[in-house]
Amino acid sequence: MTEQRQMQIGEVAERTGLSLRTMRHYEEVGLVIPSARSKGGFRLYTESDVERLMVIRRMKPLDFSLEEMRDLLEITDRLSAAGSGETPSEEERERLRERLDSYRKVADARCETLRARLSMAEDFAATLRQRLAESGGGPGRR
User: What's this model's pTM, rounded to 2 decimal places?
Assistant: First the structure.
């Protein structure tokens, strides 16, 4: 295995757009464990850790619970275990794929709900712009 560059928490926070507090919380609940610690005890992350944090970040707007996030990450970890000596059996792979597909369906449904809500919000904003224009007002005018 090739050695990956290690980054401190501040750099990872900047790259992922997550706060230090959020990253520490994800560590506390077991979603992302830093790959290493420096001699001074600082958390050290690899590119794989950053990718995992980005997956979590993308799950957040879809309102997945911490437990669902943990389960989904475990599923993807098991499915990608090929080559690590812990390759799941074909039967287990099929079960994992079925569980992953059920999460995909939930994500698709939640995306559709968010699209509908966004459409309503955009309609509302357009209505406000129209009323403002009809009243002779504009941005910055009273």
Answer: 0.77
